[in-house]
Write a structure and sequence with these properties.
Elements: H1 2-20, H2 22-27, H3 29-32, H4 36-44, E1 51-55, H5 61-66, E2 72-77, H6 80-90, E3 97-101, E4 114-120, H7 129-139, E5 140-153, H8 157-170, E6 178-179, H9 180-190, E7 192-205, H10 206-211, H11 217-228, H12 232-237, E8 241-243, E9 246-261
Parallel strand pairs: 1-2, 1-4, 2-3, 4-5, 5-6
Antiparallel strand pairs: 5-9, 7-9, 8-9
Helix pairs in contact: 7-9, 8-11
Family: Belongs to the methyltransferase superfamily.
Organism: Metabacillus bambusae
Protein name: Class I SAM-dependent methyltransferase
Length: about 260
Amino acid sequence: MGNEKTNREIKERVKGQFGKNAEKYVTSETHAKGDDLSLMIDWLKPDTNWWVLDVATGGGHVTKKLAPYVYHVCTTDLTTKMLAEARKNISEKSVNVSYIEADAEKLPFLDETFDIVTCRIAAHHFPNPRMFLEESVRVLKKGGKLLLIDNIVPKDEKLDHFINKLEKLRDDSHVRCYQIEEWEGWAEDAGLQIEKSRIKKKVFDFPVWVRRTTESEEQVQMVEKHILQGEKKMQDYCGVVAMDKDIKSITIDEWMVLFKKE
């Protein structure tokens, strides 16, 4: 019962955060212009007969990229306002896109419905990523594929803690950036095999990035303090660029992986 209550509270925080900042996620350069969007087409080689499920769409950038290549995209998000902003971004003229409010960990679709499931830069907000993977496998057709893109942390306890605390200070709806080894274990248990993967270091314009989710300059200062008081090892790993204690940019690892349902 306690876990259920905690999970509900987490998801309410996610709804609140993304509801307040929906427009920022549509226009965010990190989300709208990442090279992973083009690479996604190369990896998936989409087919005009495919049914696609885009989980936790955010600004709708994956749907917008894939829709011209496939038969239909079911675009989902936990936050209604985020979904409405995504529809504006994708264009209401896209007749092969439907918009559905849905929980990534309890998908409202029948078994073996989709050829492809996608989830981009969202899973660090999921309290139960294992459930998300199990649900993805359930709704995928046999031989179907899951494309997952998200921020990750290294297999180092101190760095893991430092990065996740940084993310949590910046965004209270953050749950956890997971390690690749954790994802691999959950995926194997769910019946998924890795076909392709890559790790990319993403550089963020810190003043823009930190203010996308913070609610006050005091909160911004808390994030800055955490970074600047971190050990050199932590700062180096995060690629901190600062001038006179004024942080200009930081770097975060992103994992892009293509799974296949066995």
